[in-house]
Amino acid sequence: MIINEPLIVDGIKPDTIKIPENIQECSSIIEDSNINKTGIVVFGGKTRLNFGNIPTKFNLALGTTKLNTIIDYEPRDLTIVVESGITIKSLNDILIKDGLSSWCYPPNSEIATLGGTLASNTFDPFRSQFGGLRENIIGAKFIRGDGKIIKSGGKVVKNVQGFDLHRIHVGALGTLGIISEVSLKLAPLPKNFCTISCEFENFISLKQAYEKILTANISPDILSIHVGKGSEFLHYPHNYLIKNLQKKYRLICVISGTKLSVEKRKDKLNILIDNKNINFEEIFIPKFHNNSNFSEEILIRTSIKTTDAINVITELNNLNDNSFNISTVFHSHFGTLFVEIKEKNSINKDIEILKNFIQKITNLIKHNNSNPVIENCSLELKKVFDVFGDLKSDFFIMKNLKKVFDPNNLLNPGRFIGKL
Amino acid sequence: MLKNDLVKKLILIVGKDYVLYKKEDLLTYEYDGSIDKNEPFLVVAPKNEKEVSQILKLCFENNIPVMPRGAGTSLSGGAIPLEKSISLTMSRLNKIIDIDPINKIATVEPGVVNIDLSIEASKYNLYYAPDPSSQKVCTIGGNVAENAGGPHCLSAGVTTNHVLGLEIVSINGNIAWIGGQTNENPGYDLRSIFIGSEGTLGITTKICVKLQDTPKHYYTIAASFNSMDEACDTTTEIIGKGIIPGALEIMDRTTLDAVEPVYNPGYNPETKAVLIVEVEGFKEDIEEQISIIKNICTYNHSTDIRTANDPKSREELWKIRKDAIGAMGVLAPNYYLVDGVVPRTKLKEVMQKIDNISHEFNLTIANVFHAGDGNLHPCILFDERKKGDVQKVIEAGGQILKICVDAGGALSGEHGIGIEKQSYLPWVYSPEDIDMMQKTVDAFTLDTRLLNPGKIFPPKIPFHGSAFGAQNNIVINKTGGNEII
Questions:
Q1: Distance CA B317, CA B308 (A)
Q2: What is the rounded distance in angstroms from the CA atom of residue B235 to the CA atom of residue A27?
Q3: Is residue A345 in a domain?
Q4: Domain encompassing residue A367
């Protein structure tokens, strides 16, 4: 199927848009693309098209949304095999009937596809307790740059038969192959949840409460620190809570388990935090399917140790800049820190000032032993930054891998780290 | 390069005490935990990543294959040197470099013994989750190579779920970190491919791992059943109820016969299977889960339920499981431990087929396995001195693995492919899939394939069993199907 709806990546419009009906057709399109060395950008729900460097070549936009079949599902095995174009919401809606979950709840899950979520490694909130997508993908089929369909892993929860080539596609932005079929490990949904939200007068009080929770044997599913009023996306999945809190410093904690165990930990948290601004609410999972559009502001994401994250947030909190507003969210349970930068005056933008400010923030993060990625920024900034940051000593292996997975450099060319 | 010249150059790098080349010194290094053996070209024991780098550079320049070796506990022949490989033993890189209790991570050298890390971490109420049965001797570097698991990996996951980053030395001597001290890093997640690659991609010299909080509460039960079917049904039903215990293990009658004279657990002679279930976490959660589990056991006609919720009684219940393989010597002089995985719902069906194989080949097979994740470990007992026994054992092992694959399972859950299963790889992967993996080796090894050569991929001439005059004669026909002749 060929369609002609607008699909623009970093200002570039493709010559053709194709949405294949099945994996074989998808494979044939890619194989044919090798003849004319066609540059391909793959899309699912189009929720993350802005992520990545500027494509060096974009002739064909290839959609996966019609690859959405459930191939194998046995609830008692806690595994499912699906095609990658299925939306996350459709997947979780099937699973919830059996009391199961993929534990993947990215923003915009009504349109975000499983393949796109994997390829962009979109952050989702439940990563700590139940593992991220990297942990839960147990097998896959992917279409290599030459159109060959390759299988890796299997459909059982334990599998050491050759290399875990399926995991390498998580976060690879489709540059090593198009994920066409995915086997996932599933987990049961806990029967009871409680979300605890609390606001604080200053960062020191927030930090003290946070540190008490860390050492109190509470075992939260989510524990996040929110400083500043950022976009809906930044505070996802708790944007609906955050918008009702007035103060700058907020803490969110989610616990789950049996009714008794949740009640007991709730009481413990109440005593620990000792704050009149504490709120409790029982939540249920579908609420996470709310559509928080991806941030339109400059967004930096970094995986960081708890102690380093606290240093970064402290320094950013003390940074008084007349030109920019900074908001931070630290998902402590998985060690992911988001920093959102918003210009106070969006008129008369000076790219040089903005560039220097971003560099200042990324240097601060690097100084704290972490490697930041710019998840969202303007085209002007992409022209001056590699959004994936500095190259490390392992880059030569990445380069070699790209050559063997995509010999003609057709898949998302130029968009990944080091312009791979 | 002549062997003498190579020895001289290696001595210059590591010193004379750390290069072994005389036949009698090499004997120990012929073996691992599998049934295969082969003599290494020579053995060299570096003490740090710089020495590893110099050794690899020398081998790269002279086209000499290298095989990394940890404690030599591999059960698939991963540490058997082939193609005149140098055996690069990592035992001197054995330091726990750092434990960071606040961020719950540890950085270790690859020669650190698995359990030693948990012992050290216990000072901070932390532990390292992967716990292979050989954890008292196996090394973390070896665990990385094989993506090792263990009884408690059911809820916690296997090695790949616990490694954050690795310092690796490439075949040309280049030292690089893949991953780091945090969950994610920009770029391709190279550690995902590296973990479980059986030493074919690079040599690990440092490993950064996650540590877990030691559970404050746990409850262990050992339920006896008069049939294996009932134990398997119980397993499927526990998981089906949405309970993922910390561990869920089964031991069969033959295993009980092996452990009884050694540890005297005193199980009823009528007992055909014992199911060990351990639940950990919050007291209130445990109480509810244990109540459900006990009801499922009773519903499936469990004849006796032993319980433990203190360290001493817990250790007693676990001892026979963890040391079961060692006790097999009571029943036979040799064992061959098979490692296959099946979907949990196929456990009963597959266990019945394994029983049929035992009768068909007239071989005793003990079963002690990770039932919760469908990871079977049929332990075929034999006497290598009996003519034809090794051949028979290999054939029976191959048939068991074929049954696992046909049931929708995998060739290995935690032991790896090594030499043992390389001929079976086409049962699960097409020639293109296998070629993709070999190209991945090329990407890491600069097209040399000099690291642990002859492993994982289907060989031209099978080596498995050849040390005992037996060989695994697999015919791979053109359609990708296979038959054992």
A1: 7
A2: 40
A3: yes
A4: 298-384
Place of tokens 């199961």: A100
Contact: A404, B440; criterion CB under 8 Å = yes
Instruction: Provide the CATH topology of domain B215-329.
Output: Alpha-Beta Plaits (3.30.70)
Among the candidates A167, A189, A211, a domain finishes at A189
- Per-residue pLDDT of B335-391, as tens digits, reads 999 999 999 999 999 999 999 999 999 999 999 999 999 999 999 999 988 988 999
Chain B CA closest to residue A263: B284
**Taking CB atoms and an 8 Å cutoff, what residues of chain A touch B374?**
77, 156-158
For residues A150 and A193, the model is more confident at A150
Nearest-Cα distance to chain B for A298, in Å, is 18
CATH number of the B3-89 domain: 3.30.43.10
Are the Cβ atoms of A336 and B184 closer than 8 angstroms? Answer: yes
* Cα(A119)–Cα(A96) distance, integer angstroms: 24
Residue A105 burial by Cβ neighbours in a 10 Å radius (0-12, 13-18, 19+): buried
pLDDT digits (tens, 9 = 90+) for A210-257: 999 998 888 898 999 999 988 888 888 888 888 888 899 999 999 998
The structure's pTM equals: 0.94
CATH architecture of B96-213: 2-Layer Sandwich (3.30)
What mean pLDDT comes out for the span B274-284? 94
CA distance B265 to chain A (A): 30
> Distance, in angstroms, between B375 CA and closest chain A CA?
7
The one-letter code for the residue type at B135 is Q
A165 touches chain B (CB under 8 A): yes
User: Is A400 within 8 Å of B281 when comparing Cβ atoms?
Assistant: no
How does pLDDT run across B7-42, given as a tens digit for each residue? Answer: 999 999 999 999 999 999 999 999 999 989 999 999
Give the Å distances, CA to CA, from B87 to A115, B15, B199: 42, 16, 12
Distance from the Cα of B241 to chain A's closest Cα (Å) equals 8
What is the rounded distance in angstroms from the CA atom of residue A157 to the CA atom of residue B160? 13
A147 touches chain B (CB under 8 A): no
